[in-house]
């Protein structure tokens, strides 16, 4: 066999055998048709005009409707229909699919043209040679099966490998007991019942010692599991699956195992701070079954994920992978371009995110307050203590600043509200100009914002959140202040200073919050008195819960504190380091 480049293709379609099975008047109308080489399929439906579908158009073959006699004429000239209602013509690649009524009678036929296109894998010939497992994705009719057939021939004939094709519907190697010459020296195993394809896959490995297994249309969980079993035995896999892109497989629970499987993981506090995410995140469960994924967007333009594990990890973190795109120019040469990483949507300048995604209890860091005097050019800030500077540097290295949502998703953040005032939510987003979109479809959401009192009795909502791998953020009340604080928390935006918080009066008056006031008091005491002046400071009396939060804050500054006094006047004392 002469080696062909990506631009040199040799087509073998045996079209005359398909036209011969049609009624004479229909076959003759296509024999000399000007678009004969672009014919994709012929559709015969009872009581309707017969159609011929080409790559770019569709036209009727006759004004007379299809009759039962015409369908019976065609059925008699093809092979036996299998359990998946598919048949073929002996030693051809054509596929005839049947539509039946409730009584089991055939009332429609789809006659699909099968072509052996030699040279179709020039775009990925180097990947085929590498010995890695390859998964082909793409819409129906884009040429997945044609590419699969050519890959099997190249591996068997050009590289001398032992190739076994699992041919469920006889579409790869044709109908009949003798396979079509298009597969070369590759061997073909037929599947008697489509639901048993996974068993035939395992049987091929155990009985026939293949180096390569070729599978078309992996569509069930058992088939995905069988594919993983084969890959773990060191056999190269070449297969196709339902889905246009790799992220379609991630969202498909049946086929997700092909790219490693997806699981929800709860991180420890330290790891969540290091990653800058919430404690519940999505991660890949295992190494992918296929090393390489090929998205066949068009017949001459394919997107290659040569590191499937890396692409899946980036998609789970809300980032866009950087695959390579391969196409063929006018001279038949392969052009390879690399996608540029997509920069996440930036936040407005007035709401620049804090260095960490969550509040101070998760981040372990409060930003120092800059006094007006410190803003002058001549002002010199006191040097920080060595311990605190080292601690700060460690935090900066461990927690990169990412303009992303709570689970790494790109902004704008899509929120699904539950029992939360939509009017207040829209008003807060509009007034503060936040990069947030309210969605009514939970499938499009990044996070659920719910009212705490309603969440307790809604096990169905928690179940939906678990299925869709969505975090739930609960707020206490439907007040504007609670909604604004919840939105700021989800976006990782710093809590406003007292002067900035006055802006919230634009849409709702709010009272002073004891928790924020107490934490702000402790922070100012540490950064303006304890550290620079090395003096002990006593804070105002607080409740036990708020004092505990103040103690945690002081620990992040690597200082000591203690509570003293009797309730209700018990308060905190902060000591210099």
TrEMBL record:
PROSITE patterns: R3H (PS51061). Residues 513-577 form the R3H domain. InterPro entries: AAA+_ATPase, P-loop_NTPase, PTPase_dom, R3H_AAA, R3H_dom, R3H_dom_sf, Spore_III_AA_AAA+_ATPase. Keywords: ATP-binding, Nucleotide-binding. It comes from the Bacteria. Pfam families: PTPase (PF25516), R3H (PF01424), Spore_III_AA (PF19568). Gene3D superfamilies: P-loop containing nucleotide triphosphate hydrolases. SUPFAM superfamilies: P-loop containing nucleoside triphosphate hydrolases, R3H domain. PANTHER family: KINASE-RELATED, P-LOOP CONTAINING NUCLEOSIDE TRIPHOSPHATE HYDROLASES SUPERFAMILY PROTEIN. This is AAA family ATPase. It comes from Candidatus Synechococcus calcipolaris G9.
